[in-house]
Amino acid sequence: MPYRKTEFVERKRLATRARIIDAATDLVQTGGWKACQLKSVAAAAGVSTGSVYTHFDRIADLYIEVFRDIAEAELEVIAEIADGPEAATERLDVAIDRFAARALRGRVKAYAVIGEPVPRQVEVVRQRYRRRFVALFRQIIEDGMAEEAFDVQDAATTAACTLGALAEALILPLAPEAEALPDRGNALRWEVRAFCRRAVGARTTQPARKLHLPATAEEHR
Predict the structure, then answer these.
(1) pLDDT, tens digit, for every residue of 83-141?
(2) C-alpha 103, offset from chain centre
(3) How many angstroms separate the Cα of 187 from the Cα of each of 5, 29, 57, 138, 205?
(4) pLDDT (tens digit, 9 = 90+) per residue, 135-174?
């Protein structure tokens, strides 16, 4: 039964590959890219180092898979907010707050995605995802202009500045040597939201001090 044998071998190959990616992802989430070394990944996945190279020609290729998995999950959260029925001002608030809150709850993972040094090939992928996040913020800003809730502006430029301000405000608190924020980042989240409202020229310039956001299914995991 050559067909069934081939099918079994392929399922086993895919299962091993998935196990390697999951092991690498766990290492990045708990220790950053520096913790995601070949021997550590192999040990965590229960395979040999040679088996890792059977599935990935370079360690950077594995990093890319891990980065994509993490970034896609974050992108999905913001995309759902951007596509929501709420007014643009509210969507801007929620998107910024969700991005910041998730980053501050998962500091190691967030720092790995936003600012930790990575191989050149992974940096290329990081830039691609930044462009996708910018596109979502651009969508919200364009909606805000259409609603006459935001100043008329170049939405693409403002969206890039919004993401830049958000990332820059978070990068130092997320860094490995940073101390935990005393208020769990609530003041920082509010200041970033207020700044971004001013940046887009929102008619109501001061957001609510605290947003009551239900956790997503992904955050419960």
Answers:
(1) 999 999 999 999 999 999 999 999 999 999 999 999 999 999 999 999 999 999 999 99
(2) 8
(3) 59, 25, 45, 25, 16
(4) 999 999 999 999 999 999 999 999 999 999 999 999 999 9
Q: What domains sit in the chain, N to C, each tagged with a CATH number? A: 1-56 (1.10.10), 68-215 (1.10.357.10)
Q: Return the pLDDT at 5.
A: 60
pLDDT single digits (tens) 62-91 = 999 999 999 999 999 999 999 999 999 999
CA–CA dist 137, 127 (Å, integer): 15
Q: In the chain, where does DSSP find H-type helix?
A: 2-31, 38-45, 49-55, 59-82, 88-105, 107-114, 120-146, 155-174, 186-200, 217-220
| Cα gap 189→212, rounded to integer Å | 13
Q: How many other C-beta atoms are found inside a 10 Å radius of the C-beta of residue 210?
A: 10
Task: Tell me the pTM.
Answer: 0.87
User: Identity (one letter) of the amino acid at 151?
Assistant: D
Are 157 and 137 within 8 A, CB to CB?
A: no
- Please answer whether residues 194 and 207 qualify as being in contact, where contact means their C-beta atoms are separated by less than 8 angstroms: yes
